Amino acid sequence: MQQTASVTKPSSSLRGSISIKRVSKVYETSGGGLTAVDNCSLDIEAGQFVAIVGPSGCGKTTLLNAIAGFDTISSGAVLFDGEVIASGKKQIRPGPDRVVVFQNGALFPWKTLMENIIYGPVRQKRMSRQDAEKIALGLLKKVGLEGIQDKYPDEVSSGMQRRVEILRALINQPTVMLLDEPFRALDAVAKSVMHQFLLELYDDSPRTTMFITHDLDEAIFLADKVVVMTTRPARVKTMLEVGLPRPRTRDLADSEQFRKIKESLLGVVHEEALKAFQSGEREMA
Amino acid sequence: MTDVAAAQHAGNGGADQGLLLSVADVTKSFGEGEERQVCLENCSFSIARGELCTVIGPSGCGKSTLINLIAGYESPESGSITLEGSPVTGPGSDRLVVFQETTLFPWMTVYGNVVFGCKVKGRSPRETEEKARQILSKVGLYEFRDRYPSQLSGGMQRRTELARALINDPKLMILDEPFRGLDAMTKELMQEFYLKLFEETGLTTLFVTHELEEAIFMADTLVLLTHRPARVKEVLPIDLPRPRHFSMMASKKYFDLHSHAMELLVEEAKWAFGSEGVSEFDTVAGS
Amino acid sequence: MSSTTLKMKGPNVGGTVSTYVRNALSLKTLEGISTLIAFVALWQAVVALRVPYLSNLPYPGDVWRNFTDVAVTTGYWINWVDSIKRIFVSFIIAQVVGIPLGLFMGMSRPFKQMAFPVFELVRPIPPIAWIPLAILFWPTEELSIYALTFIGPFFVIVLNVMQGVTSIDQSFKRAALSLGAKPSDIFWKIMLPGALPSIVTGMTVGIGVAWNVLIAAEMIAGHTGLGRMTWEAYTNGNIPLIIVGMASIGLAGYLCSGLVRAVGQRCMPWQKRV
Q1: Which of A199, B49, B69, C216 is most buried, judging by how many CB atoms fall within 10 Å of its CB?
Q2: Per-residue pLDDT tens for C26-43?
Q3: Best mutation target, C2, C3, C4, C7, to test chain A (most A CBs within 10 A)
Q4: ω into residue A233 within 30 of 0, thus cis?
Q5: pTM, full prediction
Q6: Whether the Cβ atoms of residue B26 and residue B81 lie closer than 8 Å to each other
């Protein structure tokens, strides 16, 4: 698809670089400090799709929250286009330039899908209702979902709900998309549909994307760069440039190149999962 | 298709005395008249002794009904289900089910749950205690024996449930999406845990799931079901070597099997969505 | 997101749960005490400022003096003993009759179909509406009070137990059957413990209802008891004593509910988190 046809393209394709510099996060508990993230550094280039893989509870979400502005960090700094947005002293407010799509869907069940999509920008008076509806229709059309806009969330499949939710995020024309395990709990086929959908949107107008997942296949298939985190306290364990060509189609997941990448990462991820599992069992005791 | 599948499988499984479970031409529907919905239709497959058979199919395709029939909670409308040649007539501890939602009794401790089966069958307390100790150690939960289920992590609950079944020496273990709801990494470790158990004991297992990775990684035989009404679409022998190791998920053979099975699943899903007039696949079709 | 943060915090708290609980408790008591002081101060102010319609209210000090006066009389404490005796006897009988009935109605469909319509017809009658009938029906006024105090919690407990039994997850029964359980095992080891949370809820609500009915019954038909004491204070026009009576009833009800809750928690150790 041509980039010019895009209605959601960020105003400048150079914007949206994220730099995480020696970030630590310590949660205060009555038993003392609990270090969730320890001296973690990571650079995401503007427009890059980065997948973050790691055991649950390892602090991946902490990083995402710091960028989104939902939570503070204890030390270090998060830079957004060269500007400090989070440090030990500073916490940026959540904004439509850095939207988050969570793992449990959050469409308003009492609003139609169209009303759901345009809710944010209309409510915040960033767009008129007519403009928002026009853009929303364009988005729906682009992904082949035109015709469902007047339905309520419960009337469509869960896969469609997830896609509408992503469109709801995109209408804000965010500089950064933050996705926190968005496709968890979907079955194999529905997941594959979601991947195609997300890739199409990304290829149409590449924007900085941080995608948190447990699923290595998904990470490799979607991302430019896969970052494997250690179990808590979280640090970057391995980073790998995927180097698969774009646009990507489903057969790519069966290719030898894909298999080689998976082979090289499988052991690393497994090692951390095992560590997390064992420390989890110890903590329960 | 079903006959072919059955024949294929009989060819693989060898002589009949190796056969443990046989599901033959089973049909089951719910409702009457206009409301009647056929859930399973002429469904046939079999499991040989010592085999790990996974069943995969689109969600809502009737997998749970199949399990309820084999477990004996419901009876088939036509066709037959036999275990070691004798028909299944009701629930019994020779076929134990581990469900996706935990059915650990919340009011009993881990130990109480595990010994429940032995207790109600009036086994000797000393023997039961010894066996429970062994099995709890095996699943790594001996030191958690006095906890209540709500005080355990998800993975531990799953293992308690396995222990509760294992202590009864079932002939067939039925796992109904047992690791659903666990995060992907814990799930992987639980898969390895069960594989190790299976490879040690050779306990015949029917493993039902909607996740293809899991289905291939665990199985000797993969049974693919069609969309509702569920029939056997294809029986795929999984000839990955045992003992299985996680690195096999990046092997050439695994990739080939995965790609083939995925094609079949997508085909089923496309057909299903098409029949319901919802074009979930329109977006994929173009790419 | 929340689940991960919870998980991160959870284990570390483990070692110091007791100190944590202590801190929370002391903070809670501190808050409670300051709220109480504020309430008394507001009361004092309302009386002192002669707020319209509330000008008959006595000062907190008057009430307190009245309390210290009656607290040294045996009569006051006999009222306590009598009320609590009535509550417990009736409440326990209501449980003994109500719990098995509820279990039976929950488990046997034919029995439920037979008994439930009558039950539903009688249940909406407020327990207080039974007072005239009860007084005429029973030979002594004491017995009528017992009967009335029985009726209140009885319906609550039967309904709760019945609902508790019917809402037990089918999969527990299936799992037990697969493991070889006999019908008696299903009853004693699955249905009964499975319904226990509902039984305890029924008891907690029931004890409150029991106090409601008891006080009304005592006021009309009683010769002793906290309800009677408050009523007599009214007939004598002794407003401070009325308030002492009300506060006593409130305290007695609070203590009884606390006791029932504590017993309930004792019976259900599995609901306690580590």
Answers
A1: B69
A2: 677 888 889 999 999 999
A3: C4
A4: yes
A5: 0.78
A6: yes
